[in-house]
Amino acid sequence: MIDVKEALLERTSVRRYERESIPAETMEFIYRAVENTPTSYNGQQFSVIDIDDQSLKEELYMLTNQKQLKTCNRLLIFCSDYNKISLLAQKKGLDMPPFTDTMDGVTIGIIDASLAMMSAVVAAQAAGLGSNCVGYLRTVDPKKVAELLKLPKGVFVVCGLALGIPREHPDLKPKQPLSLVFMKNAYRQDNDKMVEELEAYDEVVKHYNRTRSGGTTDHDWVAHILDYYDHAMAYRIKDYLRDQGYDVKK
Questions:
Q1: Separation CA 157–CA 121 (nearest Å)
Q2: Is 69 exposed, middle or buried (0-12, 13-18, 19+ CB in 10 A)?
Q3: Residue 84 to residue 86: CA distance in whole angstroms
Q4: Residues 6 or more apart in contact with residue 55 via CB below 8 angstroms
Q5: Residue 217: what pLDDT?
Q6: What are the tens digits of pLDDT across the range 189-220?
Q7: What is the side-by-side order of every strand in the sheet holding 155-164?
Q8: What is the mean pLDDT of the chain?
Q9: Are 143 and 240 in contact (CB under 8 A)?
Q10: pLDDT band, very low/low/confident/very high, at 250 (cuts 50, 70, 90)
């Protein structure tokens, strides 16, 4: 077992895996880590679909063209989930507030599922596994993914997590310096200095992309991320959420 410092500080996104299966006791450890995730109100507004069916993984790969979905040994799909509490409320004759029709309700489900996924990432890393978070499962074809996973009303995909025995050891990606991430007591007001630091980070990312192992690019940070934002403008997530029972009104 890797210590928590190494698990957190040396984590990388792994997309190539060995054919070897993940031991049952390792998956049990990941399950337990996810189970103990902190959640809003202890409402546990999330669920996880653990996929080991190769044909289903390949169907999801065909939708996304993300090779790690078909080569991973296990694919965990983290979902926002108000279906479970709705079922019990109905059984007990309790009124379920239209919480899923609020932005806060949507946000809480996303936060809970995201925290659960990070618990799984750390546990997997500590156990020596490789992992890769796949957000594209949320946006590529939400209706089709919901059909494949048989998601009921009140449930939607937040993110996927591919797991497996790593076949590669990618270089550690440079992250923003702590001065841009942590701010004391209030948000920084020195915009000119922040821009200088952001420009320096942009150059670090550009150098990394030009020199990294496993394929190089000329991408910087800011233009590359803005391109993702521009592409994401075409997603119709609000329509999908409405189909899944989240009719956001306030």
A1: 17
A2: buried
A3: 5
A4: none
A5: 93
A6: 999 999 999 999 999 999 999 999 878 999 99
A7: 46-51, 74-81, 155-164, 130-134
A8: 96
A9: yes
A10: confident
